[in-house]
Amino acid sequence: MPFDSILPEEILGYSGHIVFTTRKESPRKCDKVLLHEDIFEHHHTVIRGVMMQKLNQNFKDENLILGIDPGERIGLSIFYYGQEIERSFYSSVENLTFHIIQILGGLRAKRKILKIGDGNMKISKQIVMMLNLKFCSSFELEFVDEQKTSLKIKNFNQRGKRDMLSAKHISQRDGYRHMILPLSMTG
After folding, report:
1. How many other β-carbons are positioned within 10 Å of the β-carbon of residue 30?
2. Which of 37-46, 58-67, 100-109 has the highest mean pLDDT?
3. Burial zone of 154 (CB within 10 Å; 0-12 exposed, 13-18 middle, 19+ buried)
4. Cα 51 from chain centre
5. CB 141 within 8 A of CB 93
6. Least buried of 67, 106, 117, 156, by fewest C-beta within 10 Å?
7. H or E element: which one contains 115?
8. Residue 68 clears pLDDT 70, i.e. is over it
9. 3-state secondary structure of 11
10. CATH 3.30.420.140 residue ranges in the chain?
11. CB 79 within 8 A of CB 64
């Protein structure tokens, strides 16, 4: 990614859109979008989402939608402000759950919606149970009909490509919506 290297005293006059700096070198009042060094402690998907949010590019949809294709390999597709910001796959429910918690906790949205395919309900329920135990905030959950989400791909499943595309299709479908409240609220 192209960037300019500037001195702290040049920040106020900088003509770019976004400035990465330290809190110590950051001006007290600034009209520029400032991101501080602590943002790099987050996952790159959260960083991408925060940059989209800060640049305020007038996206229509203020939702965070996570589509999940459960199976032997678990596909994941994440949409933020109507744009896909991540497509990945996981081989364990624990790793997926940890990652989802990072995303749900790191990005602000009017609605946080988790859409899970109904093809393997054992894994789907395991994901929901682990999130309910480990994530201390509410989110919406939809079990989505995942028929015809798996495309025929040459060479079977090239590095999880089919699982990730299925997750993307799942994220675009509607299912029966449940509100999941954290155990700290429900007891």
Report:
1. 13
2. 100-109
3. exposed
4. 13
5. no
6. 156
7. strand 111-117
8. yes
9. coil
10. 63-186
11. yes
- pLDDT grade, residue 70 (50/70/90)? very high
Cα-atom radius of gyration of the chain, to the nearest Å? 19
Query: Highest mean pLDDT range out of 54-58, 109-113, 178-182?
Result: 109-113
The CATH number, out of the four listed (2.40.30.60, 3.30.1300.30, 3.60.120.10, 3.30.420.140), of the domain defined by the range 63-186: 3.30.420.140
Report how far residue 148's alpha carbon sits from residue 133's, in angstroms, rounded to the nearest whole number.
Answer: 32
User: Judging by DSSP bridges, how do beta strands 111-117 and 63-69 pair with one another?
Assistant: parallel
8 Å CB contact between 88 and 68: no
CA 61, distance to chain mean position in Å, is 14
Please check whether residue 67 is in contact with residue 52, taking contact to mean a CB–CB distance below 8 angstroms: no
pLDDT at 160: 75
